[in-house]
Specification:
heterotetramer; A alpha/beta (207); B mainly alpha (221); C mainly alpha (57); D mainly alpha (250); B: 221 residues; mainly alpha; 86% helix; globular; D: 250 residues; 0% strand
Amino acid sequence: MQLIAEDLAIDRGARRVIDGLSFAVKAGEALLLTGANGAGKTTLLRTLAGYIRPFRGRVRLEGGDDELTVAEQAHVVGHTNAVKLSLSVAENAAFWNAYLDSGEDAELRVGTALRHFGLEDLSEFPAAYLSAGQKRRLGLARLLVARRPVWLLDEPTASLDTASSERLVAAVNDHTNSGGLAVIATHLPLALERARTLNLAAQKVPA
Amino acid sequence: MKSFWALLHRDVTLAIREGGAIGTALGFFLVVVSLMPLGLGPDLNLLSRIAAGILWIALLLAALLSLNRIFEADHEDGTLDVLATGPLPLELVTAAKSLAHWVTTGIPLAIMAPVLGILLNLDLAAYPILVATTLVGTPAVSFLGAIGAALTMKTRRGGLLLALIVLPLYVPTLIFGISAVSAGAGPTGLAASFLILAAISLVTIVLGPLAAAAALKVHLQ
Amino acid sequence: MDLGPHAAFIWISYAAVTVTVTGLILWLIADGRKQAADLEALERQGVKRRSSSPGVR
Amino acid sequence: MQTLTQRLANPTRFMELSARLLPWISAGAVVLLAYGLYLAFFASPADYQQGETVRIMYIHVPCAWLSMMVYALIALSSFGLLVFRHPLADVSAKAAAPLGAAFTFLALLTGSLWGKPMWGTYWVWDARLTSVLILFFLYLGLIALRSALEDESAASKLTAILALVGVTILPIIKFSVDWWNTLHQPSTDFTSTVDPSMRLPLLVMAIAFTLLFFAMHLKAMRNEILRRRVKALRTQAVAGRDRLAAHGAE
């Protein structure tokens, strides 16, 4: 399986943010997107996820399920956590499990996900009580409550401490080791096992 | 289908837990209805004649208050982005959320309407009809409202704009809702307007989610 | 011209249409001039369109 | 037809073509308008029922006709934008909305000025008046929604969706208002058959107003295209400055 971007040109407003970008990410691989603010990391991720229609070029998942769009085979974690404050931690995770994964072995998956991100002691608390870092971890726990071959993460380590970042890195490594692939926008180096780096600033066509 | 029920269940749970929206809508409904006699004078005959109209208009205004939260909250915390990547087509996402709005706002308002009818000296025979028409008519309120909520999701002063867009669309519901209740309609008129009201609700249940989903797709870009 | 007892209504109708339509036309002309002037000012500053097709104005 | 719309798809072509067309349409509108006004005031008799007030009809009917035609045009343009992504469709819809609202307003105003001497009141909740009033609200909604959205491309698509929703719901609104009206009060049939002496001035005025609208619409579309060019150039100029600043810093 590989995620392929072919000759992408993406406009935001009247500005061409990305022009003529091609790359492929194979199963078992993680691609780190780097580049200054405004280099187009978020835009590229949202295009891969299918929210933004590129001006030119296309995104496809080779070896995936042809019935589904790329977005339907991907986890997308953006700047927001998609956490409901009046639901408990466990309810938040259980909802995404039921919604994204048709609730297969729900309890097991939810339990594993919360444990991995160190939230198991908080599972009965309403999410409103969580700190920013804990909310972020709950947002990331979504990655484990449902199985998706593609992970698209936008600055996933934002508001995470070192220990939590390591848990995320471990989750991504597990994911790639079991045949998944990931595209991660980050400005911090992540100690991933099999990662390549794509610097978006360098990709820019000189003016 | 499991995703649909999960989403519906979550929205209903949220509305009950957060409580504010339902309470505000019901409170607003009560306030508007009780202001009417103050404006029109305490003539009970007059009030009972126009009770159905007052109740329906106040109900629409009360429902309007809660519409803008249908998509806004999910948009703000990023839930909408994730919902869009789920196995459920966006049309069914909007359908589930409109349905949840009906369950949490339409039904409570419909139940509240006959209680407020007492304040307006509503004819006793009209009570069952009032409950029936509000129950059958309020889905149109939620599903049409969802279109407006989706269109105005990211706008400044979204609430006022929402009212401007949605209220003209409520005209048919209002007309047939009232005409079914008003005493002069007679049994045949009643059956006719009741059926038309049901038809309007069915049409909007089909049309609303399509238009709302189209609007959300634009916003997600 | 005698327009009968309701002449005022007729004149007001025609006046309202005339005023509104004239107003719209004047606005359209003024708006057109402004856009053309802005465009010219930008071009004089040397800003060129990316996909410029010559002679477009 | 295909080739014509394709050729028109290019805004540059459109600018050339409309520049050539605009004077002719405007001239046609002026000539027909003059002829129509002559017919309306001098060459047509007073109605045996309505008296001289019938002359209001000669501007009221064309305005009412335009109020509906322009909405149909907006709906068609919206369809063209959403389905075919026609680049001029949104320009057309955006340019038409305020014009349509203006003519709808005029239809309501002249209608009520006709109603006062004829019915003894400026406004009756007649089925037709009510549905035109709702049409006016729909226009206001379209204009307000567009002006409330920053992003131009999102605004155009969302407005198009609203226009299409409006066009699907309009027949239901119309039907319900008719029904409501017959329920409340006996419907008065004011649309008695048109006398031949009125038919010609009505027809001429209707065509004149239609041409007038198209002239204004073309002009508004041209303005809109220029406005978008100005906007694009400004964004480009700002981006250019950014690049210079970045180079300077290195």
